[in-house]
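Ex. 9. Protein: Pyrimidine operon attenuation protein/uracil phosphoribosyltransferase.
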Amino acid sequence: MTEKHLLILNHQQIQQKIDRIAYQILEDNFDEEEILIAGILPSGDKIAHRIKDILDGIAPFKSKFIGIELDKQSSSLKATIDFDVNDCSNKVVILVDDVLNSGKTLAYGFGVFRDVPLKKLRTAVLIDRNHKKFPMITDFAGMALSTVLKEHVDVVLDEEGEEDGVYLR
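Predicted structure tokens for Pyrimidine operon attenuation protein/uracil phosphoribosyltransferase:
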């Protein structure tokens, strides 16, 4: 492999960031009975599952995972969801992705819920790159990372977590 990869976060650091995000979500929603953790596939869902696992151990409320698959290449919203969006009515939804770059993915994620009266919609990302083309902000971010546009951030999440890493290339 000739490409140079710089390790930004290792397994332990990723876990610390996800733990902190989970505690921030708990603090923001301590009076709720249930929240929905919406993970954007293919990597946001892995982070969402990890956040949910932590919340299940520390929070007095129930948390439920829901998955969202978006066509990120489309110029309009094309989403596949594994739930009835109307079941989200009057609930708190946490929209989770791995990296916030331009904001397009989160904007499309918001679009899934546009016709549903939510109690609250928050966003959580592991890495916020600060290259927004869309007016997206993160409520919960593991790390803000200023990069040049031609650099790429890779989030590698292993099922067992031992090979986790965030790399800059």
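Check your answer against this statement. The mean pLDDT is 90.
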